[in-house]
Amino acid sequence: MNILHKWRFFRSGGFDQVRLEEGVDLKSLSELDPKLWAALSCPTSNLEFDSKTLEFIDTDKDGHIRVPEIVAATNWATSLLKQPGDLTKGSDTLPLSSINDSTPEGAAILASAKQILLNIDKNKELTISVEDTADLHKIFADTRFNGDGIIPSNTATDTDTQSVIEDIMTCVGAEEDRSGLPGVSEEKISQFFLEARAYSEWWQEAERDAANILLLGEETEAAKSAFDNIKVKINDYFTRCRLAEFDQRASEPLNPALTEYEALASKNLSTDSEQIVSLPIAKIEANKPLPLGAGINPAWISALTEFKNKVISPLLGDKENLSNEEWQQLCNRFSAHQAWLDVKRGAAVETLRIRRIRYILASGYQEKILSLIHEDKSLADASDAINSVEKLIRYHRDLFQLLNNFVSFRDFYTAQNKAIFQAGSLYLDGRSCDFCLRVTDVNKHSIMANLSGTYLAYCECQREGGNEKMIIAAAFTNGDADNLMVGRNGIFYDRKGQDWNATIVKIIEHPISVRQAFWYPYKRIGKMVGEQIEKMASAREKAVQDQATSGIVNTTQTTDTGKIPPVPFDVGKFAGIFAAIGLAIGAIGTAIASVITGFISLVWWQMPLAIVGLILLISGPSVLLAFLKLRKRNLAPLLDGNGWAVNTRAIINIPFGASLTQVATLPPGAQRSLTDPYAEKKSPWKSYFFIGLLLSSIAYLWHSGYLHQGIIEKLQNHFSINKSEKSAEIEIGPGAEAPVAPDSGAAAPNDSKTAAKGELEATAKSSEVVPTAQTVPASKPINR
Questions:
Q1: Using CA of residue 535, residue 541, residue 546, residue 551, what is the dihedral sign?
Q2: CB-count exposure of residue 111 (10 Å: 0-12, 13-18, 19+)
Q3: Is the CB of residue 142 less than 8 Å from the CB of residue 180?
Q4: How many CB atoms lie within 10 A of CB 665?
Q5: What global pTM score does this model have?
Q6: How far apart are CA 434 and CA 164, in angstroms?
Q7: In 3-state terms, what secondary structure has residue 150?
């Protein structure tokens, strides 16, 4: 009965993640429900992971790693190791004793690993590394057969076979052997001998009609080449001569004009000059044969001499001239040869010539070379195991790391290692962002990444002095965004420690921290006030400039047209202005008075609560909204935008997010001097202005009747009554009996308080009456 593996999980990022810690966990990976995997697919690019290992795992070569491929790789690696738990160590070297040789595949891999160490002069080593298998050329440099089905020329033991192999490579091309040398495969050998037989058969057709096709035997081909080189020019010559015979007046125009020679007089000429090559081969005259010696265009002397030696002399004998009839006879004799050339076969081996080809075909070299190929292929299993050795070494080193970034996101949610999708660290604005992703398409990625709720800055990175570029998406999860903007520069350090110049090209705005959200309303209000002041100042500056311009224009016009009488002073206009200013000051004063009066009327312990309540009223909604958003930051959209298929909702909460972005802090024990020689000097005018504003407000309240003797007495009585009540409570104590209530004839304290309160209210109401010159309230002094 199969016993199901007992899995262990840990919770991080808001979801349960499987713990892979022992070899039995890896052997049972196929039993784990894929719904519990952190990811279902990941790309083979833009990862900080060995690309060769990913190439081994990606068996279908589609550029993505999926669950079945991960399971297959894990099962294969655990079956070839005596202790599957060795995979969890991630060691760079594989001990030979760890290979499970109890299976045929394991035994072949062990033998191949030993052979590799022997070939690279490390036969005494007990471990093998990736570097030992990296240079296949060195591994197979001294081996005659390596099992790849390709043999270099030095595989043959005799020089004649080596020469034939080199001829094959010359005619149909070579393939690279595992040793790095050029060689031939079975396909190349078959192609060569097929071409060779076709070429031989084609020559047999010519030999059967040698009188017409092979006019000069083996020299026919060279003669035909000389004939073709000059055929067009000789046809041109005899055609011109026939035109001159047709009409005597054509002789002069068909020859070069004097002006053409005059144009050549000022140039540097040679027999290769195009102007000379285009001239007729000889002087044009009616019924004139072609001279084969003197009177020939210098550009064609060499070609005509070769034609005379290879064609005319063998076929027509020694001649000084060539008539038109003889030329036509030569053309007819070469027509059969041309028809034979038009159906040429086996052109790939033509450079070897027919004698060499027939020698190779008759000597049985095809069978000799194929036997070497078959002998090489017989070692294919042992040689192919070299790839398996490299694959096992890479899995032994890298597979466990991939599992902790695919089956779970353990590397990302723990401080032990960085995740394979973390490209490096960005230093910018006094922070280091450790969560940076490589991005191929900014626009495509940003559409999905916007759903993550994370503040992202896309940066274009370039190495100093190089053309290599890349784009990263850096997550800012601590601090604030006041000084982050497109165009800012920073330095990006990749996982290899190389530095890149980074420039922000795009920003996706989301809350960064609760602290930022707390101060955000005040900063926004300050920014709004600053913008309004700036607008008012700009408008005022423009008005002054317009007024100055208008004054200059008016002055000029006055000078031209005469002096204009001044405008009389309008008392009503300025009285209205002053009244409006006074009304505005009164409204501001009333508002300030209301706030101050309400705040002063509070009990002392209520005052800090009022301040805290005001702060919560302003910052509370922003902080609450940011808190809810920060708790929902999601890793999945960021990776999905890069081609991943994340299988869960991986949360980046507030504490974990703060760990991904480090803010600049002074080192422990550091000393700091607070004396700044260039600090701005503090001006007392701000204090003076505040004191003056406070006194003006009090004076305005006193003058308007909001503050008077009755209000002051009311506040004094209020505080004295509270103080007396506290004193009475202290004198009575917790064990004393309650006092007996007075009889109905006596005035109750509450009644006296009510009476006093009514008296004060009456006084306050009377103070609101606008005084006149005839009546002045008794409780309010007249302020002059």
A1: positive
A2: middle
A3: no
A4: 8
A5: 0.60
A6: 62
A7: strand
Q: From the centroid of its chain, how far is CA 493?
A: 14
CA angle 485, 490, 492 (to 5 degrees): 125
Mean pLDDT, rounded, of the chain: 81
Instruction: Measure CA 266 to chain center.
Output: 61
For residues 197 and 361, give the distance between their C-alpha atoms in angstroms, rounded to a whole number: 8
The whole-angstrom separation of Cα 310 and Cα 226 is 7
pLDDT tens-digit map of 679-718: 766 666 667 666 777 777 777 666 666 556 666 666 566 5
Per-residue DSSP letters for 416-483?
SS--TT--EEEEETTEEE--EEEES-HHHHHHHHGGGT-EEEEEEEE-TTS--EEEEEEEE-SS-STT
Collapsing DSSP to helix, strand or coil, 16 comes out as strand
Cα 351 → chain centroid:
51
Nearest 10 degrees: Cα torsion 584, 588, 593, 595? 150
The torsion region of residue 54 among left (phi > 0), alpha (psi -120 to 50) and beta comes to alpha
Residue 529 in tokens: 């006030």
Choice between 573 and 576, residue whose per-residue pLDDT is larger: 576
Q: Distance between CA 313 and CA 306 in Å, rounded?
A: 10
318: tokens are: 């020694």
Dihedrals phi, psi of 312, to nearest 5 degrees? -65, -50
CA distance 199 to 346: 4
State the Cα–Cα distance between residues 290 and 310, nearest whole angstrom: 17
* Stretch (H or E) spanning 15: strand 15-18
Q: So what's the pLDDT on residue 348?
A: 92
Contact 167, 352 (CB under 8 A): yes
Minimal CA–CA distance to 475: which of 526, 423, 521, 413? 423
Q: Which structure tokens are listed for 321?
A: 């001239």
| CA 8 vs CA 3, 20, 676, 746, 779: distances in Å | 16, 8, 58, 83, 84
The strand order across the sheet containing 64-66 reads: 64-66, 39-43, 645-646
pLDDT tens-place string over residues 424-449: 999 999 999 999 999 999 999 999 99
The DSSP code sequence of 72-106 is: HHHHHHHHTBS-GGGGGG--SEEEGGGB-TTSHHH
Residue pair 324/284 in contact by the 8 Å Cβ criterion: no
Q: Report the distance separating Cα 10 and Cα 448, nearest Å.
A: 28
Contact 478, 513 (CB under 8 A): yes
| Amino acid, res. 217 | G
> Containing H/E element for 349?
none
Percent of the chain whose pLDDT exceeds 90: 37
Contact at 8 Å (CB) between 199 and 350? yes
Q: Which residues fall within 8 angstroms of residue 264, CB to CB, at 6 or more apart?
A: 275, 276
Q: How long, in residues, is the chain?
A: 784
Q: 272 near 299, Cβ under 8 Å?
A: yes
Residue 415 has, within 13 A of its CA and on its CB side, a CA count of: 4
DSSP assignment letter at 677: T
User: Which DSSP helix (H) or strand (E) runs through 663?
Assistant: strand 661-663
Those residues with Cβ within 8 angstroms of residue 666's Cβ, 6 or more apart along the chain or in another chain:
672
